[in-house]
Write a structure and sequence with these properties.
The chain has helices at 14-23, 43-46, 63-85, 103-119, 129-135, 157-170, 215-219, 288-301, 347-362, 369-378; strands spanning 6-10, 29-33, 50-51, 91-92, 96-100, 125-128, 145-149, 153-155, 174-177, 182-187, 192-196, 201-204, 206-209, 226-237, 247-254, 257-265, 270-274, 278-279, 309-321, 327-330, 337-341. It is an alpha+beta fold and 421 residues long. Strands 5, 6, 7, 14, 15, 16, 17, 18 and 19 form a nine-stranded mixed beta sheet that branches. The chain is globular, with a radius of gyration of 22 Å. The two termini are 36 Å apart. This is Glycine oxidase ThiO. InterPro entries: FAD-dep_OxRdtase, FAD/NAD-bd_sf. Residues 7-360 form the FAD dependent oxidoreductase domain. Keywords: Oxidoreductase.
Length: 421
């Protein structure tokens, strides 16, 4: 889209804000619509904040390369946020320790994960038990060894949102429309738009749906292609950040099953820990079972955590997809309606690269080979059928005016491409 056109972004979480920040220079106006009274109040506020392009469960496949490029975009992105907003987003840059407390897990880390990451050119260091304990004396003596991924980062999502919010509020090209609930999205040959709960319509040249797990209500994918994934986390007040220097992760054996324990120290002495993955649940109610599961994992990994004071326990809802990859791309034949959702537990990690890919889609001109590959990985057409003319990089008709388009019906807008049910 050439400068002078307008964009609408549905969803004011980390993904929507990152997209708005990236494309605001390409449009004369960007309207960011958020249903909450403030930006970043959904899954973004519930995230722990790990930027984990290689250690995350969803990064062991093709998503890992996408996440790694996003990690590489982070330093310049955070520097731009700091300069424009005055908000310094502190980054824990000491990497992540992924450790094992049983022989089977150690064999997986050293025998499978290490060579796989090394083959991809990832900086990873194998550690024995003594090396792990020297790196993190607070960890349990039951640790048998592990891996150090020195390039993994962590930050506080609330600070990142603060910086993005300040940037967007100061930019006269950006209109923050909140609280406002979008009930329909639509496009036609000439224009695109949204309808709000109060009956208002907002018109633009392109609409980006980045509404997290609520995106499916607007986009209407076949059943079970997109779904909510509830996650719970806990925050502790820990003296000197519990003595931890790294973010630490382990799979803890519990009655024949494995439970993840993830701990991230903050700069001011707090420690956050989690997380649960409760597929199909869309409520934000913290539960006793969730709290107990997290506390068991944390205290098993860091025994002194039993003395830490819990100051907060919360839950959020991530957007998931049937194959674990994000959904980023056009979902209409007019090249005006873009999906940007289904990031699972990688919303913070994938925010910069998602903004980059959406920007590449909505700009006029060809898309390079790398972005074309990444867009093919995230293509919504793996779940829905869009006319063949809808390909990443295909030229879109220039807007010639505005008129009311046809509102999309719900889940049966497009027949399933094989179906997800």
């Amino acid at each position: 889209m050439a400068l002078g056109h307008k964009a609408i972004i549905v969803g004011g979480g980390i993904i929507g804000c990152a997209i708005a920040e990236r494309i605001r220079h390409r449009f004369s106006g960007v309207t960011l619509v958020e249903s909450q009274s403030s930006l970043g109040q959904g899954a973004s506020s519930a995230a722990i904040g790990g930027i984990t392009p290689q250690s995350g469960d969803f990064c062991l496949g093709p998503v890992g390369a996408l996440a790694q490029r996003s990690r590489e975009l982070y330093p310049s992105w955070l520097a731009r946020i700091r300069v424009e907003s005055g908000v310094d987003v502190h980054v824990l840059g000491t990497g992540q320790l992924q450790v094992a407390t049983d022989p089977g897990e150690l064999r997986r880390l050293h025998g499978s994960m290490l060579p796989a990451l090394t083959a991809r050119g990832v900086d990873v260091v194998a550690l024995d038990a003594a090396q792990v304990r020297r790196a993190e004396p607070a960890l349990t003596g039951d640790v048998l060894g592990g891996l150090l991924l020195p390039d993994e980062l962590a930050l506080e999502p609330a600070l990142l949102i603060d910086g993005l919010r300040a940037m967007l509020r100061r930019d006269p090209r950006v209109d923050l429309l909140l609280p406002a609930e979008v009930t329909e999205v639509w496009s036609d040959e000439h224009t695109a738009g949204v309808e709000l709960r109060d009956g208002r319509r907002v018109f633009g040249d392109v609409v980006v749906v980045a509404a997290g797990h609520l995106s499916d209500r607007l986009l209407g994918f076949p059943p079970n292609c997109l779904f909510p994934v509830k996650g719970q986390a806990v925050e502790f007040a820990a003296p000197a950040a519990g003595g931890l220097r790294h973010q630490c992760y382990a799979l803890i054996p519990v009655r024949g099953q494995e439970q993840g324990a993830y701990v991230v120290p903050r700069a001011d002495g707090r420690v956050v820990a989690g997380v649960t993955y409760e597929k199909g649940l869309a409520d934000t109610r913290p539960t006793r079972n969730g709290r107990e599961a997290i506390l068991y994992g944390v205290t098993t990994l860091v025994p002194q955590a039993a003395d830490w004071r819990v100051v907060r326990h919360w839950a959020g809802i991530r957007p998931g997809s049937a194959d674990g990859a994000p959904v980023i791309g056009y979902v209409d034949p007019h090249h005006r309606l873009v999906a940007a959702t289904a990031h699972h537990g990688l919303g913070i990690t994938l925010a910069p690269v998602t903004a980059d890919l959406v920007s590449a889609l909505v700009e006029d001109g060809p898309i390079d080979v790398q972005r074309s590959f990444e867009l093919s990985l995230c293509d919504p057409r793996r779940f829905i059928r869009v006319p063949d003319s809808d390909r990443p990089g295909t030229a879109r008709p220039s807007p010639t005016g505005r008129r009311n388009g046809q509102f999309f019906p719900s889940a049966d807008r497009f027949p399933a491409q094989g179906g997800c049910a």
